[in-house]
Specification:
The chain is of the alpha+beta class and 70 residues long. The chain is 39% helix and 11% strand. It has helices spanning 8-15, 19-27, 44-53, and strands spanning 5-6, 34-35, 40-43.
């Protein structure tokens, strides 16, 4: 299966951020990318992996039997 290669602008749009943030992720090697000569492309799966790795699940607390006092 081939992975769609996104431009930096498309990757930023998918993440809901700007190009600058995506370029910083690339520079810090925190996300996979493909270098095609001078242009840089980000595999769509790399964006999915980045989001999944940084997703924080909510903490489920057991409710106190009598609740909290105000």
């Amino acid at each position: 299966m081939t992975d769609r290669l996104l431009t930096v602008a498309e990757a930023g749009e998918l993440l809901g951020t700007g190009e600058r943030f995506v370029r910083r992720l690339i520079a810090e090697r925190r996300i996979r990318y493909v270098k095609l000569g001078r242009p840089v492309r980000v595999p769509e799966s790399a964006i999915t992996e980045y989001v999944e790795a940084r997703t924080v699940e909510p903490v489920r607390r057991a409710r106190n039997r009598f609740g909290r006092a105000a």
